[in-house]
Design a protein that fits this description.
Blueprint lengths: L1 H9 L5 H10 L22 H18 L36 H37 L1 H15 L3 H11 L4 H27 L3 H8 L4 H37 L11 H10 L6 H28 L8
Helix pairs in contact: 3-4, 3-11, 4-5, 4-7, 4-9, 5-7, 6-7, 7-9, 9-10, 9-11, 10-11
Length: about 325
């Protein structure tokens, strides 16, 4: 009996206060839910800036698409006196130096900017992705040519290359899209090539080789899907930059030819009479800046959601 009493005395005693603290730290359960409240993931509220950016871009795209059906005047036909100030009616935002409606030219300028930005980004994405994947799969001469093409384009300052092409070729939509696409091509080639290099030795690619899959199937079914995520993210970052570039070319008179409307061309025309009619330059500048800012906000959100880190684009 004495031995049993001694054994009980040696047993560790539970610290009741520590046990109560542990019990109190446990998160309560509500309505029989299996997961504790503290462990539940709280869904973050959407940023007001992001909502405003989405609303603005959607509104601008809607105006650009439906410009022909909107109750606005022609952007190329004068409707009143030169430099008429803004007032309610057909001259809501005033008239430019030629007497054309500024609001009409803003709407059609949105179409010009978005068409060039979207087409340029889409073309560069497709061509750059194709060249990068072919360079990784076939290597050898194809990889050498792709690397040489990227290095040659990157060795020339982008603005200088754009001005040189614009001075040689007749300005048009196709010329602007082609020249900006050429400047942006190396970035897409290097992104697609860096991602494909990490996949080319993967088990699924090796298995496809072993099963006798043709090169086109391996590129399109195995390499392309994992490359598109990073390319789409990068395209979202590039798109507002393309719009800025197009506006700069139009401001210099190297963009789309008249009578096509462009925000950069409107700012350049309004700058000459900014003392007498400041609305001609101020209104297009504000619209242009807000639009590019909204696109950069969307691009930053897309980058955060899809995550582009770890991709070498240099």
């Amino acid at each position: 009996m004495g031995g049993i009493a001694q054994d009980k005395a040696r047993e560790p005693k539970l610290d009741k206060s520590a046990f109560d603290v542990q019990k109190r730290r446990r998160a309560p359960r509500v309505l029989g839910l299996s997961a504790p409240i503290a462990a539940r993931r709280v869904r973050p509220r959407r940023s007001l800036t992001l909502v405003l950016a989405v609303t603005w871009v959607a509104f601008a795209l809607l105006l650009a698409i439906t410009a022909n059906w909107l109750p606005i005047r022609s952007p190329i036909v004068p409707i009143g006196a030169s430099n008429a100030p803004p007032h309610w009616g057909s001259q809501f935002l005033g008239l430019d130096v030629v007497g054309r409606s500024i609001i009409s030219r803003l709407v059609y300028g949105a179409r010009t900017s978005y068409v060039i930005a979207i087409c340029t980004t889409a073309i560069t994405l497709c061509v750059g992705c194709l060249i990068g994947l072919l360079a990784v799969y076939f290597r050898g001469a194809v990889n050498f040519v792709a690397d040489l093409l990227s290095n040659v384009i990157l060795s020339i300052p982008g603005l200088l290359l754009l001005i040189t092409i614009a001075s040689v070729v007749t300005p048009s939509y196709e010329e602007v899209i082609g020249s900006i696409s050429l400047v942006l091509l190396p970035g897409f080639i290097r992104i697609s090539r860096s991602i494909a290099l990490a996949q080319i030795e993967g088990l699924y690619v090796v298995a496809a080789h072993g099963l006798g899959a043709p090169p086109a199937r391996i590129i399109m079914r195995e390499l392309l899907p994992n490359t598109l995520v990073a390319l789409i993210t990068y395209a979202g970052i590039v798109l507002p930059s393309v719009m800025l570039t197009e506006g700069g070319l139009s401001y210099l008179g190297l963009g789309v030819p008249p009578p096509a409307s462009s925000w950069g061309e409107m700012i350049a025309l309004g700058q000459a009479d900014i003392a007498q009619a400041p609305w001609q330059a101020i209104i297009p500048s504000i619209i242009f800046a807000v639009n590019v800012f909204a696109l950069f906000i969307l691009a930053d959100w897309l980058r955060a959601r899809l995550d582009l880190k770890g991709v070498d684009i240099q």
